[in-house]
Amino acid sequence: MSLFIACKQAHQLISEGMDRRLSLSERSKLKMHLAICDYCTSFNGQMSFMRTAMRQSALRTLSSTETGKQDGGE
């Protein structure tokens, strides 16, 4: 079993890591890959940014929906 992974595998682990906790082996391989690959490090940052933006958007939508319900009920 190799300690180094290809960019395609790194992208898959980055994506999967957004939805589940990666195993120690997976995290180690990804961390090693990110240490040497600027492209995948950038991809990881972009994915994190998009996830944060989507969460904030969803929270704003929920907040405005709840506020609208309260205003309409009074």
Describe this structure in words.
The structure is a single chain. The protein is mostly helical and 74 residues long. It has one domain (7-73). It has three helices and no strands. The chain has helices at 7-17, 24-36, 38-73. Helix 1 crosses helix 2, helix 1 packs parallel to helix 3 and helix 2 (24-36) crosses helix 3 (38-73). The protein is elongated, with a radius of gyration of 18 Å.
Topology:
Elements: H1 7-17, H2 24-36, H3 38-73
Helix pairs in contact: 1-2, 1-3, 2-3
What's this model, at a glance?
This protein has 74 residues and is mostly helical. The chain has three helices and no strands.
Key attributes of the depicted protein:
74 residues, mainly alpha, 81% helix, 0% strand, 3 helices
- How many strand elements? 0
Q: Number of helical segments?
A: 3
Instruction: Summarize model confidence as the mean pLDDT.
Output: 88
- State the distance separating the first and last CA atoms: 64 Å
How would you classify the helix and strand content by structural class? Answer: mainly alpha
CA-based shape: elongated
Rg over C-alpha atoms, rounded to the nearest angstrom: 18 Å
Percent strand equals under 5%
Question: Main β-sheet: number of strands, strand sense, barrel status?
Answer: none
Provide the number of structural domains. Answer: 1
Helix content: over 70%
Low-confidence stretches: none
The string of secondary-structure elements, in order, is: HHH
